[in-house]
Amino acid sequence: SQKIEQNSEALNIQEGKTATLTCNYTNYSPAYLQWYRQDPGRGPVFLLLIRENEKEKRKERLKVTFDTTLKQSLFHITASQPADSATYLCALEDMRFGAGTRLTVKP
Amino acid sequence: DTAVSQTPKYLVTQMGNDKSIKCEQNLGHDTMYWYKQDSKKFLKIMFSYNNKELIINETVPNRFSPKSPDKAHLNLHINSLELGDSAVYFCASNQIAGGRELFFGEGSRLTVL
Fold first, then answer.
1. Is B26 helix (H, G, I), strand (E, B) or coil?
2. Which residues of A touch B104 (CB under 8 A)?
3. Does any CB of chain A come closer than 8 Å to the CB of residue B3?
């Protein structure tokens, strides 16, 4: 069965640096992949969707890449801010989620 | 105007009781979902309905029964509650064709004592 993994449970970085989060999947060839943000006590909020024929997608300080050969998506936040601190989740097109990476941006 | 709303937000109950959580979406979406997020924060899909038809039915105990009276509503009924059912349950919706981004409710925190 397909598996989706976010191999960092937690990531701590300094304000202003670029955060890079990884999402890997196996036994699956998704037509697209999504990234969500979840703040404590709230439901996840959609950030970006990237399709299999797109190498890269950008939205403000966010950038997502999708490598179907490596079966991997990378999620970047440039010029990170403390307000970016949250849990970030990736999801395959069947709406199954990875375990999430908790990002903490320190001032 | 809340897009996906769940009630109740908090639910505390005794083991063995039966309880329901209701979900409504006003986005005109054709698909609705239930997710369970346990203490380890893993968001696990439980059920999905498309136009009132069950399309995803994960391996969950049959004490959990979803009901979709119409496209805008998906309720979750849980019989004979157990301690391990304690979690936050999220409802979500999307449109299968198109962007497919999920819109989540704020969650219903169930505590079984």
1. coil
2. 43-45
3. no
- The string of pLDDT tens digits covering residues A51-87 is 999 989 999 999 999 999 999 999 999 999 999 999 9
CA distance B65 to B29: 21
Per the CB < 8 A criterion, the answer to whether B44 and B37 are in contact is: yes
Over residues B40-50, mean pLDDT: 91
Nearest by Cα to A26 from A7, A8, A51, A2 = A2
> Do B101 and A93 lie within an 8 Å CB cutoff?
no
Amino acid letter for position A40: P
Distance between CA atoms of residues B21 and B76, nearest Å = 5
Residue A67's Cβ-count burial label (10 Å; 0-12, 13-18, 19+) is exposed
B39-43 average pLDDT score:
87
